[in-house]
Amino acid sequence: xxxxxxxxxxxxxxxxxxxxxxxxxxxxxxxxxxxxxxxxxxxxxxxxxxxxxxxxxxxxxxxxxxxxxxxxxxxxxxxxxxx
Length: 83
Hints:
By secondary structure, the chain is of the alpha+beta class. Helix content is about 20%, strand content about 30%. The chain has a single domain, classed as Ubiquitin-like (UB roll), CATH 3.10.20. Strands 2-1-5-3-4 form a five-stranded mixed β-sheet, covered by helices on one side. A hairpin with a 4-residue loop joins strand 1 and strand 2. It is globular, with a radius of gyration of 12 Å. The model has no long low-confidence stretch (mean pLDDT about 90).
């Protein structure tokens, strides 16, 4: 399976991460995956919550959680904000 390499800036902790994401997963599943990963990387500093959002800085819109990454036009090199 191909992966998409994106840059994610996590607003709540002021850190940026480069991650590989599966293009066929829905944005809502990706948000859960990112939330859990950041929670673990920060030793619990980043809270586990179901209210996080992805923001596409190029399209200047929030990513629709019902779409797959591919449908949301998230491709290699994309810069996203994670709220």
